[in-house]
Amino acid sequence: MTIGRLLCEAGATLRQAGIAEARLEARLLLAHALGVPREILLRDADREVATEAEAAFQEALRRRCAREPLALITGDAGFWTLDLEVSSDTLIPRPDSEAVVRLALALSSAPARVLDLGTGTGCLLLSVLAEREGAWGLGLDLRPGAAALARRNAGRNGLGGRCATLAGDWGAALAGRFDLVLSNPPYIETEAVAGLMPEVARFEPGSALDGGVDGLDAYRAILADLPRLLAPGGVAVLEVGIGQAGPVRSLGEGEGLVFLAGEADLGGIPRAVAFKAIGEALRTP
Fold first, then answer.
1. Domain assignments of the chain as residue spans, ordered by start
2. How many of the other CB atoms lie within 10 Å of CB of 261?
């Protein structure tokens, strides 16, 4: 079968399965199966596809029709300026989270030590390190598989010598202080997790989604630790869900933190909030 015919049939199949960007995803899946850039597919539409490659494409198509995320099928995703490996151990990086990176870079011009709590793929930490050549970073994740994935992504993007990744429960085991703390914690209300789109509810780790009854459990733990984790003049930037910027700001101020700024995602939704520590929190023990 030719590339053109495969794409035509695959687009129809994906549309029937409820995939919004059916034509685009058909091209991405076929390019992955063939191991070529997707631009080549239009140029070579009349080219015959080898049986083995066609079988791999049909299997990828079957998985996508079952609503498995495209990124998990191809095994990678783009974020900021990075090319990242993804797996079922972590959330798939989303453009919304780039608001955290933008705000962190705007408020922290020369961090020496960066901490990423719940690092997942390492997307936040590695994006900041890529922009701040003098910085060193530490990524923590409760899931050992996620910490290992972030470590591979650091090497993949030439940043392996400037960061470490460990398995740990937020900042509980840390004693040092950091100039910049980043986090995209779980923030979906427990009752809402099952109602998320199938790609998320079925295939992404529940522990990275479920933020407790009100979605704020992880923020309570992180914000309570920030006064001891932030170095003098340090900044913390956290991703928040829809409608959570105000509640998270209140929680932070209740811990003695100073709210600095917020940042919206590309859809105009408040997506990141930043704090600094004051008073006793700024003194070195």
1. 3-66, 80-282
2. 13
